[in-house]
Amino acid sequence: MNPRLNQLHPYPFEKLRALKAAVTPPSQLPHIALSIGEPQHPVPEFVAPILQQHSAMLGNYPTTKGGLALRETIAAWLCRRFNLTATGLDPDRHVLPVNGTREALFAFSQAIIDSSQPAPVVVSPNPFYQIYEGAALLAGAEVVFVDAQSEHGFIPQLQSLPESVWQRCQLLHLCSPGNPTGAVMSLDDYQLALELADRYNFVVASDECYSELYRDELKPPLGLLDACRQLGRDDFSRCVVFHSLSKRSNLPGLRSGFVAGDAQLLQQFLLYRTYHGCSMSELTQQISQAAWSDEAHVSANRQLYNAKFAAVGEILAPLLDFNLPTAGFYLWPQTPIDDCDFAQQLFAQQHVTVLPGQYLSRPDGNGANPGYGRVRLALVAELDDCISAAQRIAQFCQTLS
After folding, report:
1. Which of 26, 88, 106, 322 could be bridged to 135 by S-S, CB 3.0 to 4.6 A?
2. How confident is the model over 374-396, as pLDDT tens digits?
3. Over the range 204-229, which residues count as b (16 or more CB within 10 Å of their CB) and which as e?
4. Model-level pTM?
């Protein structure tokens, strides 16, 4: 077996299962899960007719690169959403369909990291999506974390890392809007990342799968490719972005997304994927084309989340300290007791599952962990369930005081 497998940490939900196994929840209360970011809103209505019309496509082997029609649809969406130009974004060179961002993020690290170089480094925000870490470790790299703390608006302070780290860095992961904080990077934040990438010769990978779940319809979050355009980086050099239909279109089971950006990087990534065996089925491509072409269901999706944030925020604000996030579907409140104890006791008393923040973070050299004393609440359930969960959390918090 690959000895690097022994470096992997248990996945957060494995830890959560063990934490919950030690207690018995009240059976008279129905379980409400706010722990996993799995959208529960209905799938768009246009999906079912496509399934019926194009099911015969499952009889064909798809190409690794995906059909030109899908890549053109994705490129057109990128141009509309991120103010890019059709002449500057070539569907044939700058876009590659993938089976969801999780698969693509993992595979991209395997293709990018050169383990023959001495002590390669991958820099990741902290807290973080654990695929960043696992992919880096299995590719033979060391992971260096940059804390995303409330005093800096939950934006990782890249300038805090020493030059010795950047000299070994091969890949920088960004996540904006952030998971679990919902923080959105500014143009200045992106500019700093790009200046470091140019100075020290590494790749910037921006996970933007929450980009369409924003609160203010007039202020959609900035993306890395848009930042490139504004900074005159029209070739997107050293930059790739990852997008998905899971959160945007409530299609987590479709496993459909894309990678876009630097044409040379995507050419090599396509070569890797040709051997990786991860082609997107033509049926999935048809549904994806329809989803990337439609904004009405995305806007309706945002309104559903905004209603939940308003209702849950009103209930919990008197009892827990948190900021309503600019984007995403998570709340990231501080807890009055240890976050693991909070999650375990809440489950035992109120049959509500939340994820301890320390499961999403790593401690620094001094033992400080930016996830300690926080929990992640995924507002993915229906509005009534989210309100019921918030009321139960409020009741639980009152017992603590």
Report:
1. 106
2. 999 999 999 999 999 999 999 99
3. bbbbbbbbbbbbeeeebbbbbbbbbb
4. 0.94
